[in-house]
Each structure stands twice: as C-alpha cells, then as structure tokens.
Amino acid sequence: MAILLRLVIFLALTLTTSACEVTPWSNDADCQNLKTSEQIEKLIIKESNDGRKDHFKVFLVGDPQGNPANFEKIIEYANRRSDSDFLFVLGDLTDMGLAQEFDWACKIMRKSNKPIIPVIGNHDAISFGKEIWFKLFGDFDFSFQYQGSQFIIYNDNKFEFENLDNRQVIEEAVNNIEITQIDHRIAIAHHRPWSEDLGFNQFLFDMGLSVTIHGHGHHFDYWLEDDVELPHYMVNSAKNVSYGIMTVYPDSIEFEDCYKDSCVPAILQR
Ligand SMILES: [Fe+2]
C-alpha cells in the first residue's frame, strides 16, 4: 500500500512538473538578473557610491544543495548586516545539476539585498548542469576587483571538466589586472587545492595570493599546507544555517565561522 501511495505521489509530481514551464531537464530556470557580470556591475556601482573604505566584509555560503530553507535563512542574516558588501556561494547550489534545482536556488538568491556571486561546484556540473550554469550565470572562471583587492574565481571541478588548466587561468587573471597596486589577491574555488596537483600551493603563493577560499568539505577549516605560507579557508555547508564572514583590511584578512547569528573568529591551524 505504501509503495502504491509513493507511486501515485511520484506520478502526480512528475505530471505537475511537466505541466510547468520549468522541468528538471530543461535549462529554463528563472535566474533573471543573477548573471555574474550583472552582480559584479552592481559591486562596481556600489564601490563608486561608497568610495574607498578602510575594510569590507563578504558573506561566504557553502554548499546549499538540498537545504533551501537554511540557504534562505543565511540570506536573511546577510540582508540584516548592513556592514557586509556582497556574498559568494561556494558551489553545489544543486545536488543533480537540474534546472528545477537551479530555479529553487535562484528564487532564494534573488532575495539577497546585496550582490551575490555563485561559484560552480561538482554537483552543479552533472547531467545538464554545465550548460544550465553557463546560460544562467556565465563563465566558470572570472576575475574582478573590489576595494583594492582582486578576486580570482577558478573552476577546479576536475572530474566533471576535462583538461582544466587552473594555473593558466590564475596567471592570466594576475597579469591582466588593470591597476598596479592592490592590497590582496584572493582566489575562490569549490575544492581545496588538490593534493595530487604537486606544487600548486607554491604556485599560488608565487602568484602573490593572500588566501584561497573553498566549499565542498562541509566543515569549517582554516589552515596552511605543504609548508607554504598561504592560508586556505573552507566554509561549512549551509546545513544548520552555517556560513563564514571574511573581513578584508588593507594589510590583513580575517575570517569568522558563523552559526545563525553567532560568529567566532577562525583560528589559522599551522
Ligand atoms: Fe562539492
């Protein structure tokens, strides 16, 4: 009887979904006005209005896949923080890379009263996820400048994308910067540096990076590795309403691990 009931519910959901404009297999998720380029444009306007600040804060949201209610609560917390400038969502907005999942994520992202910039995760790139992502948000790799710092976003989902050359992406971003003097270079990617990629941490250090920021691990971490003086920060998943806050000063960067409205300083593990 229970199996029959589940079958009826499944068929009802399937028929309902197929009757709507958005289906899990289409790439028609409604993410209007959430293109990365539009979000960066908003930041540029904000910077122009605010002028140079002595510090700024960024919300870091990890892996909201399957936790839309908690994702929405984090957006609400961010909306209340007038001292934060924008948000990164550090990948895995979806579980299966389906249009319906992107549609849910975008409905929540649209509630942000600040620019919100997503980074592609491995789960976002399965099934039709790559094409949907590109259509909705744009390039997988990109770079921008804000308040004297350069942000370099690189796609390091090596199992879902062939022949990724993260070194080239980062090197080009560093070399193509328009201003000569910057406070920090901050790299953002879903995965922490892959241990199989020997020498990558040293490469990042040599490129002049101040820190790298990641999701995927579903826990908080703040650490050094490979005897390289380059900190890495990982944010917990959005499950349980966890998120990170980065504060960028001209000569330092600090992180906080947050749960609901309570935050504690992240301590660098050496
Ligand atoms: Fe992931």
Structure description:
Strand 4 and strand 5 form a beta hairpin. This protein has a single domain (2-262), classed as Purple Acid Phosphatase, chain A, domain 2 (4-Layer Sandwich), CATH 3.60.21.10. The protein has helices spanning 2-19, 36-50, 68-80, 99-109, 129-136, 166-175, 200-206; strands at residues 56-61, 84-89, 116-118, 142-146, 149-153, 184-188, 211-214, 221-225, 228-234, 242-249, 252-259, 262-265. Residues 7-22 have low confidence and may be disordered. The strands form two sheets. Strands 3-2-1-10-11-12 form a six-stranded mixed sheet. A six-stranded mixed sheet has the order 4-5-6-7-9-8. It is globular, with a radius of gyration of 19 Å. It is α/β, with parallel strands linked by helices and 270 residues long. Fe (ii) ion (FE2) binds next to loops.
Key words describing this protein structure:
single chain, about 270 residues, alpha/beta, Purple Acid Phosphatase, chain A, domain 2, six-stranded mixed beta sheet, globular, binds fe (ii) ion
Structural class assignment: alpha/beta
Judging from the principal axes of the Cα atoms, what is the shape? Answer: globular
Bound molecules: fe (ii) ion
| SS field, number of helical segments | 7
CATH 4th-level superfamily: Metallo-dependent phosphatases
Topology order in helix (H) and strand (E) letters: HHEHEHEHEEHEHEEEEEE
Q: How much helicity do the residues have?
A: 25-40%
Reported by name, the CATH topology is Purple Acid Phosphatase, chain A, domain 2
**Tally of discrete structural domains:** 1
Multimerization state: single chain
